[in-house]
Every structure is written in C-alpha cells, then in structure tokens.
C-alpha cells in the first residue's frame, strides 16, 4: 500500500524544514547538494510572496501529515513557446517510498488542469537512477542526454531530459 501524498502551498511554519532540506548535505543528498546557501533563502522568498506566481511556483510535499519535500515548476522556452520545467527535493527519510512519483503525478495533473501550457519537462543527472525511475513511472519519456550540464563534486556531469505532453 502506498502512502497518501498531497501538495499544498508553503506556510511560514514550513520554512525551517525547507531550509534544513537545502542546508544539510546529508538531507540534500548527493544529487541535490549545491554547496552552502543563504540561511535566509526560504524566508526571503516566502516574505517576498514569490513562491507561487504566473511564471512558476514551489509547493510542499506532505505525506502522513508531515512535510517530506518540495516540488517546483517554472517556465522554460523552446523555439518561442513555453513549457513547464519541474524540480523536486525530498528529505532523506522520504526517498525510496514512491513519494516522488506521486508528487510528480499530482503536479502534472494540477498544471494540465490549471494552465494552458502543452508540455512539461524535467531534467536530472544521468546517474540519478531513482529520479529517472520516478519520472518514468509518472508518465515522462526520456528525450535525450545533455552532455556536461551539471557541475557537482568537482566534476562536470551529464544530464537527461524527460518530457510529457498533454
């Protein structure tokens, strides 16, 4: 039986959880750790009211009533046309339980129901097998390899592009 997963807007009480998610290398995980960041980052974004808007947004992923991560979308442009590009961060304890797959499905359903954009895409490092499987289970198709697009751990790494159309 899979856990019930929900998406909801981020509230002020969620900010410490989200800041921990990006501040601790163990919580961020090897694919999401981007080095130390401003400890006021989430609070600043929340106070500015920039967490959900016309150009994209970020919402909390909740499982069992507890925050377990966040998922975001922003506009990307190909050949003069926009699409949505997704990103996800899960807490260490939430990984490997199907939560990411469910969160992707929920956000895809939301974006296709609430916006007119035709395409949704997601990028990940080619070695991030768990995220690749989650995207495929959520209905995304592998579209190609992007050579040398991510710099992490002192090395340039390849990425992969996944896409989904209405």
UniProtKB/TrEMBL annotation:
Residues 5-163 form the N-acetyltransferase domain. InterPro entries: Acyl_CoA_acyltransferase, GNAT_dom, Ribosomal_N-acetyltransferase. One of its GO terms (cellular component) is cytoplasm. Keywords: Transferase. The keyword Transferase applies. GO terms for molecular function: protein N-terminal-serine acetyltransferase activity; protein-N-terminal-alanine acetyltransferase activity. This is RimJ/RimL family protein N-acetyltransferase.
